[in-house]
Amino acid sequence: MNDVIRYLRDQQDRFVDELCEFVAIPSVSAQSKHRADLQRAADWLVSHCRELGLKTKLHRTAGHPIVVATTRSVRSRKKPHFLVYGHYDVQPAEPFELWDTPPFEPTIRGDSLIGRGASDNKGQHFAHLKAVEAYRATQTELPCDVTFVIEGEEEVGSESLGTFLEKHRKDFDVEGVVVSDNGMPSLRHPALTYGLRGVVAFEVHLTGPDRDLHSGIYGGAVDNPAMVLCQLLASLRRADGRIAVPGFYDGIEPLRRFEREQLNRYPESEAALKRQLGVKALFGERGYSAVEQRAARPTLEINGLTSGYQGEGSKTIVPSTASAKVTCRLVPAQKPIHVLRVIKRFLTERCPKSVRLKFEPGHAGEAYCVSPTGSHAQAAMRALKQAFGRPPILMREGGSIPIVTDFKKILGVDTLLLGLGLPDDKVHSPNEKMSLTAFHRGTEMSAHLWDELARTSAR
To answer: Where are the domains of the chain?
Structure first.
């Protein structure tokens, strides 16, 4: 292990150069114009994994390719076998004008690697690849077999991955899954995440007159779809932060005392959070702390609104159409299908006859929760402490990784969520970055993890 850690530290500059190459590929899955770039990112991964000596294959799908790379061989079938998941696709970089540097020209500033996808998720899964490289380069026997599954559709719902896992189930006879696609509170507070919120997305489209109308001639006699949409959306939430839709909270259990204690070990104060976000006040469901609201309570958020004239100056119209993109974050016991059903009914019942409503469901995934006291979780906690030099905390996180529930349903195993992102990484926003300290310590955490998991399996 000493040789492995020494190698990781000696090769840090090269690792960063390689990560910059990877981040420079604009693999935006939401935009069809980047389809060739997604293929290029997948090909780059295949080439890199083969250079590391991994048995690697690129699998075609109905969407973007899936890269599978493994250390496993016929001779090593008796070793514990684990799967590492990651994704090479990234969020759109717009608005470009808010970036300090071009999003696909990776830039080093101090301890930060700035670029779209640096933290979400290229840097995080790349840390695990480097750990495996260190074992192989130092001729140190890897105590576990590791198979990487790296997809290109996470940011658009992972539509192909579930089908792929079903089809190739026999290749993934693993004891567990490791995912680093989330965060930790700080470098002083490494964390094992034992719960994630689920997600459900939908769009609401309203249509009024068959064309935009002159607001002076027709205004007051024809309902305005933009106004109706705003009224409908506003009715979804009460003033105290509770969602007003009957049935939305069905089945949710109250937070246990243990969970509230763990959540409130989170080191960031509400005052610090306000400063970080640039807001004068926080808002959330009454009766819960900001940490609890962000990590363990359900939400309904408007992600985008579109209607009428958006150009320079004024255009006095009653718009013909209005639409909104909405997502809900879900907690354990909430079912996406049920949540969609009750929201659709709520909006439909309240929509006036003066406009037509179309409700379009989008991607969805259930919440995920696992016991933090299991042997694998405890092995992960030890690996975190060795790499970061501090005892880790347990946390639930507000983000969603829908494929985690697929791993449980299809492969029958739990997932260790070992995030390397920091709160100020600005994922999904302009100027996304990854802490190079977090990346390098992540490589060491991964190296220790395979040793700790092997010891656990041996017992």
So the answer is: 2-196+367-458, 198-252+298-365
Q: For the chain, give percent helix, strand, coil, nearest 5.
A: 40, 25, 40
pLDDT by position in tens, the chain (length 459): 999 999 999 999 999 999 999 999 999 999 999 999 999 999 999 999 999 999 999 999 999 999 999 999 877 678 999 999 999 999 999 999 999 999 999 999 999 999 999 999 999 999 999 999 999 999 999 999 999 999 999 999 899 999 999 999 999 999 999 999 999 999 999 999 999 999 999 999 999 999 999 999 999 999 999 999 999 999 999 999 999 999 999 999 999 888 888 888 888 889 999 998 899 999 999 999 999 999 999 999 999 999 999 999 999 999 999 999 999 999 999 999 999 999 999 999 999 999 999 999 998 889 999 888 899 999 999 999 999 999 999 999 888 887 898 999 999 999 999 999 999 999 999 999 999 999 999 999 999 999 999 998 766
d(CA 131, CA 175): 19
* 369/346 Cα distance (integer angstroms): 29
Q: Is 103 exposed, middle or buried (0-12, 13-18, 19+ CB in 10 A)?
A: buried
CA pair distance 173, 32, nearest whole angstrom:
34
**Angle (CA) 14 19 23, round 5°:** 150
Instruction: Tally helices (H) and strands (E) across the chain.
Output: 14, 18
| Cβ-based neighbours of 427, under 8 Å, separated by 6 or more | 91, 119, 120, 421
Rounded Cα gap, residues 177 and 273, in angstroms: 31
CATH of 198-252+298-365, one of 3.30.70.360, 3.40.50.300, 3.40.50.20, 3.40.50.620: 3.30.70.360
Which CATH number applies to 2-196+367-458?
3.40.630.10
